From TrEMBL:
Taxonomy of the source species: Bacteria, Pseudomonadati, Bacteroidota, Flavobacteriia, Flavobacteriales
Bilayer topology annotation: Multi-pass membrane protein
GO cellular component: cell outer membrane
Keywords: Cell outer membrane, Ion transport, Iron, Iron transport, Membrane, Signal, TonB box, Transmembrane, Transmembrane beta strand, Transport
GO BP terms: iron ion transport
Protein name per UniProt: Iron complex outermembrane recepter protein
Length: 798
């Protein structure tokens, strides 16, 4: 940075300090009683404060138009538009009880904080209170709550399949983009973060390519944790339950310099016993002592650090560091039962020759810098992510015998693979003048990834001395340029257009060899392949405001998932690479609030065309490669209702219907003819089959009643019912996951500082296939869901 730039920057800062202003006021309830510990934040600025014991607050802020978000425990969150003109301005605000009005919900769906009801996107948002009420501790807990959302995992949270409206993947490259405090998980191995101290979880349904780019083929999950504020606070959470559950968290938020520098610290420990017992009497290659062992134990350590700096009203800088360590010496990582009927008949058993172990170390760091003037806002998001994975004695082919895998690194098995690393940088500029008819968001995005994918950096243990090793390293980078413009044709009608250009380069170096006591013999030559993938991702939307409580919208968006390279040597006639996938989403939406915010009704209808799906096909002589097999489509409806019937009694309903089909989709498979002893290639036309992992419907019903116990305490009783419709795990529609029901309950007593909850999940102890083979032509592996769980949680807040 040259000297003139530095002088100009400091001059800008100095001018701003001389223009410093503030707003102040009092927060009261409908009885005109003061409300202490109320959070007041100016959206999209990083500015915020908390009321004192008399309900009074002061918020330093410069002239301009703002949207304030006001939230307090026991009261309905509201947003309020203000225009700051005077040097010191008074804004008094009245809050309604949460027993009498619904929260106004703020989301970050369009890269800025906005009222959910005004955003022309199908979004389900869980704020901190709903996360606690639904006991959403991980992504799996959101099944049913989010219409047309499906989740299954391969034994651990960092190997999972998320599906929205039927759009999913069959590889490590996600189709649902998951962001944690602005950091994108580019690989599913970097998912599975523990939920702790959550501010909100947003699920955007349908492709979001224009603003989010790659991997937002089916939608986006935005997870935001709580940031430090101007008031010191300490929280502690402790949960115990069956299956040996231990979950303990502790956090601190404090200003280091009032209105300037803030610190947030949090840590959590979680342990749970597995619910499976190894029953391997008839297993080939059984390891002594493995029979009767418990399988599926999980232990995690999580830490979160925030450092937030507000030099003045123009700038805010936030540094965030997250780390998580997962480990198990009785691992369920990638293990399953190869007979789905046997699995359902024995839901608490698994059949392994040996019980394996796994570990994962995950580090996320991010620095977010914002500069806000009266006309525009500049944002920079710099992120670095590092993931290390190890596994050993993983009996992947349960019941088959002899198929045991381990991570491999430089001649050693069961050790951490070389870490996957991702650096990303996003710059954005957006308009800030709310009086203008035209508003915009534009930016650039770059990422650089070094990828050691676990399944292709592994050793199959043939015997104690011989290993069959796959080795690969991926070098991927990409750049994007994007822009979105909103233009107000009238006070009621807004048109939005957007476009994103993505360019991604991939390089894969791979080989296969035998390692016999350190002597390496290549069975496939070391190869290097490259690919380049480009995409244009347009967006068009119309939003019509009928009145202040009813909004309509129509939108078209496009999603993109990059192509890739097959990591095995193929004949010259077969392409080593495969092309990108695209999804085109057409959507109509209706959002409304009724009866003074006592009833909320949101409806979305959609149609998605999914093009060039990437899937494995055979090319003769037992040669398999990923290629672009065919297309699919998904059509459906989503309805969300939330209402307060009478004071203290709240009802929630979420319903999703999805009619999905594969189109022009032909699989080729090599099959051994037992009569001739020859391998034959057979074609399977799966066109017309239902998309895998796409329930025909999802239904969520919840009722919660809350009333006061004396002056300080509240009692709450909540019941939930989830019905997940019939679906298939596989593309052939051969492995069916039938319709199933889940019943949950939560009973709690609380005041401003304490809460004690008793909860139960899956009270009817229903067992169903949680994960099944994506392709049953290679076998019918499956994993069964967890049994009934129950426990208690204590929360302390000071």
């Amino acid at each position: 940075m040259n000297r003139i730039t530095v002088i100009a920057l400091w001059a800008c800062l100095g001018v701003q300090v001389s223009l410093a202003q503030s707003i102040n006021g009092t927060i009261t309830n409908t009885k005109q009683e003061s409300v202490p510990n109320t959070n007041i934040s100016a959206l999209n600025t990083g500015l915020g404060t908390v009321t004192d014991n008399n309900g009074k607050y002061t918020l330093p802020i410069k002239k301009g138009k703002y949207t304030l978000e006001i939230s307090a425990l026991g009261y309905a969150t509201i947003t309020k538009e203000i225009s700051v003109e005077d040097e010191n301005m008074t804004v008094d605000i009245s809050l309604s009880s949460s027993n009498e009005a619904l929260d106004e919900v703020v989301v970050y769906a369009q890269k800025k904080e906005q009222n959910l009801q005004k955003v022309p996107v199908a979004i389900t948002s869980l704020n901190a209170k709903r996360v606690e009420e639904t006991r959403s501790w991980k992504l799996e807990d959101m099944v049913g709550i989010i219409p047309n959302y499906s989740y299954s995992e391969l034994g651990v949270g960092f190997q999972q399949v998320q599906s929205i409206r039927g759009i999913q993947v069959f590889s490590e490259n996600p189709a649902i983009a998951t962001y944690v405090d602005g950091v994108n998980s580019l690989d599913i191995a970097s998912g599975g973060f523990q939920f702790m101290d959550i501010e909100r979880i947003e699920v955007l349904r349908g492709p979001q390519g224009t603003l989010y780019g790659r991997n937002a083929l089916g939608g986006v999950v935005n997870i935001t944790t709580k940031k430090p504020t101007n008031t010191q606070s300490v929280f502690y959470e402790s949960s115990i339950g069956n299956l040996g559950l231990q979950r303990h968290g502790l956090g601190l938020k404090t200003p280091l310099i009032n209105h300037k520098l803030f610190l947030g610290l949090g840590g959590q420990y979680q342990y749970r016993d597995g619910f499976l017992t190894n029953s391997n009497e008839d297993k080939v290659s059984t390891v002594l002592g493995s029979n009767g062992r418990r399988v599926g134990d999980e232990e995690s350590f999580y830490g979160n650090l925030f450092l937030k700096w507000l030099p003045n009203e123009l700038w805010d800088v936030t540094l965030n560091l997250k780390t998580q360590v997962d480990q198990s010496d009785a691992s369920a990582f990638f293990v399953s039962v190869q007979d789905d009927k046997l699995a359902l008949e024995n839901p608490d058993n698994i059949f392994l020759g040996r019980v394996g172990e796994h570990g994962r170390n995950l580090l996320n760091t991010a620095m977010v810098t914002n500069y806000k003037s009266n006309k525009f806002k500049l944002s920079s998001v710099s992120a670095y992510q590092r993931v290390g994975i190890r596994f050993d004695d993983i009996d992947f082919f349960s019941l088959a015998g002899g198929q045991v895998f381990a991570s491999y690194n430089d001649g050693q098995v069961g050790v951490f693979n070389r870490p996957q690393e991702v650096f990303s940088q996003e710059f954005r500029i957006s308009s800030e003048n709310k009086n203008d008819k035209l508003n915009y968001t534009a930016g650039t995005y770059y990422f650089n990834q070094t990828n050691y994918e676990p399944s292709t950096n592994s050793a199959r243990i043939i015997n104690e001395r011989t290993l069959d090793v796959l080795s690969s390293i991926g070098k991927n980078n990409g750049i994007a340029v994007f822009g979105e413009v909103n233009y107000s044709l009238s006070e009621s009608l807004i048109v939005t257009t957007g476009l994103r250009y993505e360019s991604e380069n991939r390089k894969l170096v791979f080989s296969r060899f035998n390692d016999e006591n350190g002597t390496v013999t290549f069975t496939s030559p070391r190869m290097e392949e490259r690919g380049n993938y480009n995409a244009l991702l347009p967006k068009f939307a119309l939003a019509y405001r009928v009145d202040k409580n009813i909004n309509l919208y129509a939108r078209y968006t496009r999603g993109f998932r990059a192509g890739g390279i097959n990591g095995n040597v193929l004949p010259e006639s077969v392409s080593q690479s495969f092309d990108p996938e695209f999804s085109n989403n057409y959507e109509l939406g209706y959002k409304s609030d009724w009866f003074n915010k006592r009833l909320r009704l949101n409806i979305a209808a959609f149609h998605i065309d999914w093009k060039d799906l990437q899937f494995f096909n055979s090319f003769g002589n037992l040669v398999f490669a990923r290629t672009n097999v065919g297309d699919a489509r998904s059509t459906g409806l989503e309805i969300e209702v939330m209402t307060i019937l009478i004071k203290g009694l709240q009802l929630e309903t979420g319903f999703g219907f999805n009619d999905s089909k594969y189109k022009d989709f032909v699989l080729s498979r090599d099959v051994l003819n037992v009569n001739t002893g020859t391998v034959e290639t057979i074609l399977y036309d799966v066109s017309g089959n239902q998309l895998s992992n796409a329930p025909k419907h999802t239904l969520f019903l919840a009722t919660q009643y809350q009333f006061s116990l004396g002056k300080d305490f509240k009692f709450s009783l909540r019941g939930e019912f989830k019905n997940i419709g019939q679906q298939y795990s596989d593309i052939q529609n051969d492995l069916e996951i039938g319709d199933y029901n889940l019943f949950n309950t939560l009973i709690s007593i609380s005041n401003d500082n304490y809460s004690l909850s008793f909860w139960g999940r899956n009270l009817s102890d229903e067992r169903f296939i949680q994960y099944g083979s994506a392709d049953t032509s290679f076998g019918r592996s499956s994993r069964i869901s967890a049994p009934r769980t129950y426990g208690m949680t204590l929360n302390l807040k000071f």
